[in-house]
Amino acid sequence: MKTETRRGRPRKFDEDVTLDQVMQVFWRNGYAATSLDQIAEATGLNRPSLYAAFGSKKDMYLNVISRFADRMHVYLAEAGQQTAGANPRLKAILIAAIDLYTGQTDLTDAPYGCLAISTLQTESPRDSEFKEALTVVIARMDKGFASLIRHETKGSMTEQEICTAAQHLALILHGLSIRARAGETPNVLKRLAESAVDKIIPFSNGN
Amino acid sequence: MKTETRRGRPRKFDEDVTLDQVMQVFWRNGYAATSLDQIAEATGLNRPSLYAAFGSKKDMYLNVISRFADRMHVYLAEAGQQTAGANPRLKAILIAAIDLYTGQTDLTDAPYGCLAISTLQTESPRDSEFKEALTVVIARMDKGFASLIRHETKGSMTEQEICTAAQHLALILHGLSIRARAGETPNVLKRLAESAVDKIIPFSNGN
DNA sequence: TTCATTTTTTACCAATTCGCATAAAAAGAT
DNA sequence: ATCTTTTTATGCGAATTGGTAAAAAATGAA
Which Gene3D superfamilies does the entry mention (chains A, B) (predicted)? Predict the structure, then answer.
């Protein structure tokens, strides 16, 4: 089933490209400080077109947040598969995250940390949907780390230890995001990440 | 030298009380989403009075941020002096911070995390003064942890190890702030904090 | 060509934003 | 009592906000 040729005036924009542009604006400014005019300028569209395609400002923001979370998940999962063993894989993931946070990946050129952590936080007390979205993002990171650790250290850690270690790694990662947004350099952050992983999940030959 | 009796109409507000009220508004909403009308309502003053006393919105915000950092510093330092040894003192400090982040101290009733970390971040890319303020806050925490560790573990750690461990603790603390703002409970956060300290600066009888 | 459909564009709206100018009020000083 | 000083209160204003109505444009279908 191909899509039938579309009726009406054709769109002058690509939805994916536009959403990426919208993402950049929110990434830099956060939710509250971003205006639809800024988004309109960044995308080359005007407000009514944006509204027709993506809904309200809040819709766009939540859309972009979940888009970001998905991309980040894929990107980090892939980075974690280039090595073996819990400790090396976790290091690889944190280092990849730092590259993302400091604008070294094709997701963004700007060193603005984690889009979700940096911008959702601030809005969280005023809007329960944002608060929920933040909770979901955090839980997803916890689960991701936990499943990697569980998989790589079969039996040698209790489920309790696994979950705690996973949360420690996520805590570290969020702290790194903040420092990235504060302007800290990638290399400093990566050293911090590696030494942190060594304390949380020390290297062992077994896993 | 006493202050001479003041000329002119007396102020109807106490500067300290008002600044605390201003702090609550920024704490909840962040900088961008806070309006002067909201501040006016929270303080019972009107905008011209606020402006005359505290300057612009940005002035007020930076004022409140440094006020917060000072108070936090005093509060945590005191909490860290109720015990002895690096590991117990660090735990006491993190636990006190969590109480603050979750609205269990007299600084605020609201569980909005760390005012500086939560709200400065978002604004950081758009304003170099905010970015600088964030850097200062982070560095201050790093230094605080480092000096405690240095003092409690005389000689048994290299300066490099001390600074790295201090930064790990600050990273964890910032991660905890985010989770507090996301609505996580104090007890869960405190368990995470304690187990993290045990990994970063394990308990030893010597210090 | 004419019509139906979809998007773009222009223009507008009501509400809010920060800041300030000006006037009224409340105190001490003379 | 009158003047000076300081603060409070009223109200304006220019700009920006998110959102939408209505018209114009661009395409396929008939």
Answer: Homeodomain-like, Tetracycline Repressor, domain 2
